[in-house]
Amino acid sequence: MTRPEILGSLRSTYTRAVCMLCEEKGIDYQLTETPLNAPALYAVHPLGRMPVLRHGDVELFESKAIATYLDLSFPGPRFIPSEARLAGLTEQWVSLVNTLVDRTFIRTYLFAYVVPMLTGGKPDRQAIDAVLPAVREQVAILDKAVAATGCLVGEQLTFADINLLPILHRVQQAPEGAVVVKEAGNLARYYEKHSARPSFKRTDPPPGPPARYRAA
Ligand SMILES: N[C@@H](CCC(=O)N[C@@H](CS)C(=O)NCC(=O)O)C(=O)O
Question: CB within 8 A of 142, min separation 6: which ones?
Fold first, then answer.
C-alpha cells in the first residue's frame, strides 16, 4: 500500500496525535516537517493549518478526519471503536478536547507564556490568571473521566486518549499547568502511564513552537 504522508510538525499537538496513531498501528508513514501556513498546507487545507494527509489520490485535513481514515485504511488494532456506544464516546471526547480543552490549555493559557516570549517579552500574567480557573475546571473534568479505567473511553486506549496526551504534555510545560495536573491524581497517573508508550516517546517534539512559513 502507498505510504501515507503527513505534513505538519511534531511541535503541533494535532500533528503529533496523528503521528502517534500511525505509530500505534505500525503504519509506515512519512512526516514531512512543514512550517505553519506553508503553501504545501494550503494546497490541501483551505486555511493552511496542520496536519494534512496525502495518501495516493486521497488528500485530507482535520486531525480527526485523518485519524478516522488511517484507522479504517490500515490493519492493526483499531483506535476508533466500531461499537456504537464506544464510537460515540470517542467522538464526544475528541470533540470536547478539540473545541474546549485545547482552546483553554494551549491557545489561551500556554500561549500567554509562549507568544510574548517570541518577541522577548514577559508572560501575560493577566491572561494567565484569568484562564486558570477554567484550566482547573477542565482538569477536574478529565480527572473524573479517566478515574474508573485509566482511559477516556472503555478500558482500551482510543484516539480520544491519543488526541489528549500531546495537549497534556504541553500544558505541563508551564508552571501552574504542571501543578494542576499533578494534583489531579487520576489524570497524573493516566499521563504517567500512557506517556511511557513507545508511540508517545517516538513522537516527542523538539523544544519550541512550530516554525511559521515566511515567503522568501
Ligand atoms: N481542528 C484542526 C486544528 C488544526 C490546527 O489549528 N493546527 C494548528 C497547529 S496545532 C495550526 O495549523 N495553526 C495555524 C496557525 O497558527 O496559523 C485539526 O484538528 O486538525
Answer: 101, 152, 164, 184, 187
pTM of the predicted model, to two decimals? 0.97
**Digits of tens for pLDDT over the chain (216 positions)?**
799 999 999 999 999 999 999 999 999 999 999 999 999 999 999 999 999 999 999 999 999 999 999 999 999 999 999 999 999 999 999 999 999 999 999 999 999 999 998 889 999 999 999 999 999 999 999 999 999 999 999 999 999 999 999 999 999 999 999 999 999 999 999 999 999 999 999 999 998 888 889 887
Which of 50, 96, 171 most suits a substitution to test ligand 1, by most atoms within 8 Å of the C-beta?
50
Q: Does residue 159's CB lie within 6 angstroms of at least one atom of ligand 1?
A: no
What domains appear along the chain, each with residue ranges and CATH number?
A: 5-73 (3.40.30.10), 84-199 (1.20.1050.10)
Residue having the nearest C-alpha atom to atom 6 of ligand 1: 49
Sheet-wide strand order for 5-8: 30-33, 5-8, 52-55, 58-61
Residue 162: exposure state from Cβ atoms within 10 A (0-12, 13-18, ≥19): buried
- The interaxial angle of helices 159-171 and 84-96, nearest 10 deg, is 20
